[in-house]
């Protein structure tokens, strides 16, 4: 019997912030002791156990317009256990926004981000820069792959396709793919591309090719703002447009612009927090050569925005990932062989309903689902469109209980405790 199987007994136990615990009447003492032992190994995560295998699907209200349920699902590689949040975006008491640690280049657990932001529920989000074995000595940033919008404000743009982390994208996929919710309270799939310019009265202009991202296209210039955080910008000039493992560029340059004027320059990307009202421009190859033309005191204008491929209301929230379903059909070529723990987001009822799905990572269910199976299950649940987000040890779904309080982890993370991730989807109660 593994430590996770104990949590599938009839006893329900949850550690509260005060350190006390509650036990369902009738639970055996031996079961309670076993659960305490299990929970002691899961430092940093507050867990609410999954329902027993074969249990009837019961939906519980997290808050008005938000329900949670969990259930078993027979799959090609064994039984998976699904944790599902259903969000009614038409309910005025609900809103959805990005969870992130306060900086693009930072990581935190979903439960910590949700509690800090005051969310009632949430799941983990985009794939992210998780390792840097190819470039020894270059710090890992933890920054996400795709675009991100929080509270209507663009935080970052997408890295080049070859520089992404995560499983291969399906045919036609892009690192610019997002699931977003507009100011019209409708969810939709879209692509957000960066449109920007760096202008100098003396030296002309060039397109801006990056915004707060851990990897820049070859020969380009990228902008880093206060939203980036204090992480090193060195990784931005490593790899190429065709290989994430390619060496770091040797021709680099950095220019700091404050209040519209150049205040400093450097031969290589630096680190440290970027002050409000300041933009750090990082260039590689041809981009570095253009930046070298700028001198301290010179007036420079930097403009950037994320442009949606579809017409519609401006996005209040957007998170990156890999498209699985579009217009009621699974994308062709979805992998149907590799099975693991996964997280995915679905759009139903013409954008009025959002489905947040995460699989359980306990030993009993760790075989998980293939990408194709996740897409099919979201379709069965009513999703016409779907986006896959980070999985494996990153998969985490949190929701508060009927009595309120901070959200607790509803699935069992496959690492044994929550992984620090780049961002997530937060569900918030509005008013009443």
Summarize this structure as a short list of keywords or feature phrases.
432 residues, eight-stranded antiparallel sheet, seven-stranded antiparallel sheet, 27 strands
What does this structure look like?
9% of the residues lie in helices and 36% in strands. By secondary structure, the chain is mainly beta. Strand 10 (177-182) and strand 11 (187-200) form a beta hairpin. The model is unreliable at 1-56 (pLDDT under 50).
| Spatial extent as radius of gyration | 23 Å
**What is the strand tally?**
27
Structure class: mainly beta
Shape label: globular
Q: Helix segment count?
A: 4
- Could you give a short account of the major beta sheet? 8 strands, antiparallel
Enumerate the spans where pLDDT stays under 50 for 5 or more consecutive residues: 1-56
Q: What number is the mean pLDDT?
A: 88
The span between the termini is 45 Å
How much beta, percentage-wise?
Answer: 35-45%
Strands in their spatial order, largest beta sheet: 3-4-5-23-22-24-20-21
Helicity range:
under 10%
Question: How do you describe this structure in short?
Answer:
The protein is mainly beta and 432 residues long.
């Amino acid at each position: 019997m593994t430590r996770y199987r104990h949590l599938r007994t009839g006893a329900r136990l949850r550690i509260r912030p005060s350190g006390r615990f509650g036990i369902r009447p009738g639970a055996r003492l031996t079961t309670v002791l076993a659960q305490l032992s299990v929970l002691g190994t899961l430092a940093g995560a507050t867990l609410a156990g999954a329902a027993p295998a074969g249990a009837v699907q019961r939906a519980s209200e997290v808050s008005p317009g938000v329900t949670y349920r969990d259930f078993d699902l027979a799959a090609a590689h064994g039984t998976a256990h699904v944790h599902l949040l259903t969000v009614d975006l038409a309910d005025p008491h609900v809103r959805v926004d990005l969870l992130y640690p306060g900086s693009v280049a930072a990581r935190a657990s979903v439960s910590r981000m949700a509690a800090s932001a005051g969310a009632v529920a949430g799941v983990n989000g985009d794939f992210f820069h998780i390792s840097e074995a190819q470039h020894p000595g270059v710090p890992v940033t933890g920054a996400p792959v795709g675009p991100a919008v929080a509270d209507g404000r663009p935080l970052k743009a997408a890295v080049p396709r070859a520089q992404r982390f995560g499983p291969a994208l399906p045919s036609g996929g892009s690192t610019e793919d997002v699931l977003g919710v507009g100011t019209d309270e409708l969810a939709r799939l879209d692509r957000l591309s960066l449109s920007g310019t760096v202008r100098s009265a003396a030296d002309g202009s060039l397109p801006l090719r990056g915004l707060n991202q851990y990897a820049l296209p070859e020969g380009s210039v990228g902008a880093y703002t206060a939203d980036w955080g204090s992480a090193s910008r060195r990784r931005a000039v490593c790899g190429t447009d065709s290989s994430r493992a390619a060496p770091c560029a040797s021709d680099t340059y950095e220019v700091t612009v404050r209040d519209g004027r150049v205040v400093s320059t450097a031969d290589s990307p630096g680190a440290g927090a970027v002050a409000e009202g300041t933009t750090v421009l990082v260039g590689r190859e041809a981009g570095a050569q253009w930046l070298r033309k700028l001198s301290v005191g010179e007036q420079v204008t930097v403009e950037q925005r994320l442009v949606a491929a579809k017409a519609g209301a401006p996005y209040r929230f957007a998170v990156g990932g890999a498209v699985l379903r579009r217009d009621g059909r699974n994308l062709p070529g979805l992998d149907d062989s590799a099975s693991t723990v996964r997280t995915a987001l679905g759009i139903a009822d013409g954008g009025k309903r959002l489905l947040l799905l995460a699989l359980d990572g306990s030993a009993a269910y760790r075989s998980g689902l293939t990408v194709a199976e996740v897409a099919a299950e979201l379709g069965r649940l009513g999703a016409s469109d779907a986006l896959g987000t980070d999985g494996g040890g990153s998969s985490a779904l949190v929701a508060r209980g009927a009595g309120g309080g901070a959200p607790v982890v509803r699935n069992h993370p496959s690492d044994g405790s929550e992984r620090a991730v780049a961002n997530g989807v937060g569900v918030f109660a509005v008013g009443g």
